[in-house]
Design brief:
By secondary structure, the chain is mainly β. It has two domains: about 150 residues, Golgi alpha-mannosidase II, domain 4 (Beta-galactosidase, Chain A, domain 5, Distorted Sandwich), CATH 2.70.98; about 90 residues, Immunoglobulin-like. It has two helices and 19 strands. The strands form four sheets. The protein has a seven-stranded antiparallel beta sheet, covered by helices on one side. The radius of gyration is 22 Å and the shape is globular.
Length: about 260
C-alpha cells in the first residue's frame, strides 16, 4: 500500500492518493483520520443534501451503528471550526468521538476501503485499487460540498479560439445547479435541475446565458407543474425560492 500526500495550491486541501494491492483474507481495510475536533455529530452527504448523525455511543442504537453511509463527503466540526473529508469512491464510514488515547475531545473518522470476506465471493476486492481523498481544515459544510464535486466531477478543459461563457450563473452559493440537459422529448428545450444544499430556506437568481422565451417548473419527468415558485423579469433572470434540500427542475423554452 502506498500513499501520496499533496497540498492543493488552489483549494488549500490536503489531497491523498491511496494505491493498494489487496490479497488479504477476512480483513477490512480502513483509512483513519484522527482529528483534534470535539464533534457531537457528523454531517454525511446523501443525494441532494446531507444528514446529521451522532458521534457518541450513549445508547445501544448508537453503538450498533458501527458504520454509516456517506456519498462524496463527511464533515465534523465544533462551533467555529470544522474539517471536511471528501472522497471519490468510498461510501462507508465510522465516526466516533475519542481517539487512541481515549481523549473525549477528539474525533476519529475512518473510511472503509477494502474487505476480504469468504462468502459469498471469496475473491471480493482482490487485486489493485486506487482511492482519492481530500482533507480540508477550517472548513464549513459548503467547503465539503465543493470538495466533493471537485474530486468526483473532474473539470475538463477544451481550448478554443474564443472564450465560451457559462450556460447559467446562480447568485446564491447554497444553490447547486446539478444538471443541465436538453429535454427528453427532443423539443430543443433546456432543462436544469438544482437543489438547496445547506439545509436552509434561500432565494436565488438564475441567469441563463442563452436565449429563451418562457420558463416553467416541472417534475422529475419534465412535465409542467403548478403552482410554480419561479419569477422571471425583463432582463432574462429567473428568481426561485427553495426550502431546505428542495429539488427544483426548470424547463426553458427556446422557441
Amino acid at each position: 500500500m502506498t500513499q501520496e500526500l499533496r497540498l492543493n495550491p488552489e483549494t488549500g486541501a490536503l489531497d491523498i492518493a491511496v494505491s493498494v494491492d489487496w490479497h488479504e483474507t477476512q480483513k477490512l481495510l480502513k483509512l483513519a483520520f484522527p482529528l483534534d475536533i470535539h464533534a457531537e455529530r457528523a454531517a454525511s452527504e446523501i443525494q441532494f443534501g446531507h444528514i446529521f448523525r451522532p458521534t457518541h455511543t450513549n445508547t445501544s442504537w448508537d453503538a450498533a451503528r458501527f458504520e454509516t453511509v456517506a456519498h462524496r463527503w463527511v464533515h465534523v466540526g465544533e462551533p467555529g471550526y470544522g474539517v471536511a473529508i471528501a472522497n471519490d469512491a468510498s461510501y462507508g464510514y465510522d465516526i466516533r468521538r475519542g481517539g487512541a488515547d481515549g481523549s473525549a475531545t477528539s474525533t476519529v473518522v475512518r473510511a472503509s476501503l477494502l474487505r476480504a470476506p469468504l462468502f459469498p465471493d471469496p475473491e471480493s476486492d482482490q487485486g489493485t485499487h486506487e482511492f482519492s481523498f481530500s482533507l480540508t481544515a477550517g472548513a464549513e459544510i459548503a467547503d465539503a460540498i465543493s470538495e466533493g464535486y471537485r474530486l468526483n466531477v473532474v473539470e475538463r478543459v477544451v481550448r478554443g479560439s474564443n472564450e465560451v461563457p457559462a450556460l447559467l450563473t446562480c447568485s446564491n452559493s447554497a444553490v447547486v445547479i446539478e444538471t443541465i440537459k436538453l429535454a427528453e422529448d427532443r423539443s430543443g428545450d433546456v432543462v436544469i435541475r438544482l437543489y438547496e444544499s445547506l439545509g436552509s430556506r434561500v432565494r436565488a437568481t438564475i441567469t441563463p446565458e442563452f436565449g429563451w422565451r418562457s420558463v416553467v417548473q416541472t417534475d422529475l419527468l419534465e412535465r409542467a407543474i403548478a403552482p410554480t415558485a419561479i419569477d422571471g423579469d425583463e432582463e432574462g433572470d429567473v428568481s426561485v425560492t427553495l426550502r431546505p434540500f428542495q429539488i427544483v427542475t426548470l424547463r426553458f423554452s427556446r422557441s
